Amino acid sequence: MKIMHVDASAKRERSNSRALSRYFLERLRDEGVDIEVDYLDVTVDTPPHVNEAFAIATYTPPHERTPAMKATLAASDALCKRLLDADALVFAMPMYNWSMPSAFKAFIDSITRTGLTYVNAEDGHIEGQLARQKLLFITTRGADVRAGTPYASMDALTPALKAAFGFLGVAEPCFVDAQPLQFSDHAARLDALERAHAELDAMAANWAHPMKPAPAAAFEMNDDAMALNQE
């Protein structure tokens, strides 16, 4: 299984989302899955933010693009190829101020490409090209904003990720959300990480043995959120 693994936390060794994504890959190996990892740290290799040249080039038909346009799109073309070549995608990130880190938003902007990761069908509808890939989002949130909590309505991360990758053809992305990790006591943090580890264990077993049903909790789309730099 070829996995594209993307980390998006501004933190390094203190990052919970990075640690959880590494844990998941280790559990896959423990389950006997032969994995090849294509790794990208978007905080180090951040895709360029969209500018006028990119916006013009990406919507210019390929046969009409100038050498300068092709050069502008070269890095995005390469990222799209890596995404399309993968069998599975593991994206790990903290929630910053209720949504995704800006480096991961730049990644989404770079890989949302007409004619590559989505195409316009003859009848006018959009066909995303990532329908065959498994997708797991591993997120960390400082506050507890699950249903019934005071901040339950403030999760802008989960719907944004679902929308972005649903457009690209991913019908059922999986989420494992660890929270609360900052605005809580020590016991609550430990419980949050234990829940995340248990869900990742179940997810790894399901990826390794797809005919074996995993616990429903591993596939719940949780409504959770956090604030800046709190993962």
Q: Kindly state the percentage of residues in helix.
A: 25-40%
Helix/strand order = EHEHHEHEEEHEH
Largest sheet: 5 strands, parallel
Strand order of the largest sheet: 2-1-3-6-7
Topology:
Elements (H helix, E strand, L loop, with lengths): L1 E6 L8 H15 L5 E6 L10 H7 L8 H19 L2 E7 L7 H10 L6 E3 L5 E3 L5 E7 L16 H11 L6 E5 L7 H23 L23
Parallel strand pairs: 1-2, 1-3, 3-6, 6-7
Antiparallel strand pairs: 4-5
Task: Give a structural overview.
The protein is α/β, with parallel strands linked by helices and 231 residues long. 37% of the residues lie in helices and 16% in strands. The chain is built from six helices and seven strands. It has helices at residues 16-30, 52-58, 67-85, 102-111, 157-167, 186-208; strands spanning 2-7, 36-41, 88-94, 118-120, 126-128, 134-140, 174-178. The strands form two sheets. A five-stranded parallel sheet has the order 2-1-3-6-7, sandwiched between helices. The longest helix is centred in the C-terminal third of the chain and has 23 residues, at 186-208. The chain is globular and about 60 Å long. The relative contact order is 0.18.
